[in-house]
Amino acid sequence: MGRRGDRSGLATGEVALDRARQLAHGSRLRALRFLCHPGRLLALVRYLSSLPGVTVLVGDDPAGVHLVATYGGAGNLARFGVHCLVLPAIMEDYLAGRSRQALRTGINRANRQGMAVRHLRPEQVEPAFVEVCRRRRWTTEVMARTSAGFGGPMEALVGLVVEDALGELLTLVLLQVSGTTARLVWSMSTTRGDGRWLAWRGAVEACLALGVRAILVGGDDYFAKRIGCARVNVGVRMVSDVVVEPAGDAGLVVGHLVT
Questions:
Q1: Residue 235 pairs with which residues in a beta bridge?
Q2: Using one digit for the tens of pLDDT, what is the confidence trace for 174-186?
Q3: Is 138 helix (H, G, I), strand (E, B) or coil?
Q4: Cβ(232)–Cβ(252) under 8 Å?
Q5: CATH 3.40.630.30 in the chain, residues?
Q6: How far apart, in Å, do the first and last CA atoms of the chain sit?
Q7: How far apart are CA 233 and CA 49, in angstroms?
Q8: Strand, helix or coil at 28?
Q9: What pLDDT does residue 232 have?
Q10: Cα(104)–Cα(149) distance, rounded to whole angstroms?
């Protein structure tokens, strides 16, 4: 909204969307009160209608079924305003440009500190998750609630870690991949630092190698914007015979497929 809306206390459409999503996470009363203001509801409707629409392809597999359940359905609030990164053909193109300066700086700092990416075998994913949670002093209950949102067994996820020069685990990234689509399931660090930037580079490299065209990212707006995500309204199409090839020049085109 414009300045007048800001001065009157009306939320922007983006903030209204984030508040509305709390309806699905137990904070119904707070979200309902927020959206009762007609200006806020109008801001939300205008914001969602202004976003580009992107349809991604998933395979006929358990991960694809979960992605359809997560983002499918015309009235599903989860499909609106999703951070989406459409991948170019090669890593060099992804890292190029002024908009990736923060990402490049973080990667360079991590490299200078001796950090390195290590890709996990399926049986290594859950122990790495447990180690990160232990280091952050999470309870068993919190770990269970977190892993319940992963959409399947951990060994089915694509996992990678960033370690310091001594092999100490710093950051863990988990991705759910189906067809030409990936979802960032979890990204967590055991300490502050630049590990997450290097981990994201490793995640993009893994997705490019798997033929992924689009990555759906939730969570931190600051991070999502600096890795090149755009807010979109997502549609998911399941195709039983998705042909996975190295990423081509498919772009973010309104009403078109990212194939």
A1: 55
A2: 999 999 999 999 9
A3: coil
A4: yes
A5: 84-258
A6: 33
A7: 9
A8: helix
A9: 93
A10: 30
Exposed/middle/buried for residue 76 (C-beta within 10 Å: 0-12, 13-18, 19+): middle
From CA 149, how far away is CA 134, in angstroms rounded? 19
Q: Nearest Cα to 200, choosing from 170, 180, 178? A: 170
Distances (CA, A) of 77 to 14, 212, 216, 237: 13, 24, 15, 17
Question: Are the C-beta atoms of residues 104 and 228 closer than 8 Å to each other?
Answer: no
Fold of 84-258: Aminopeptidase (3.40.630)
Pairing of strands 169-178, 181-189: antiparallel
Instruction: Give the Cα separation of 234 and 189 in Å (integer).
Output: 28
Residue with tokens 């189906």: 178
Residue 255 burial by Cβ neighbours in a 10 Å radius (0-12, 13-18, 19+):
exposed
**Cβ atoms of residues 109 and 194 within 8 Å:** yes
Single-letter amino acid code for the residue at 259: T
Q: Which residues, in sequence order, are CB contacts of 183 under 8 Å at separation 6+? A: 67, 70, 151, 175, 176, 177, 215, 216, 217
Structure tokens at 21: 């999503």
Distance CA 123, CA 141 (A): 22
Block means of pLDDT (10 residues each) for the chain, 259 residues, are 38 74 65 75 86 93 94 84 93 94 95 96 96 94 92 94 95 96 95 92 96 89 89 90 45 41
Cα distances from 3 to residues 39, 134, 194, 231, in angstroms, run 14, 46, 36, 22
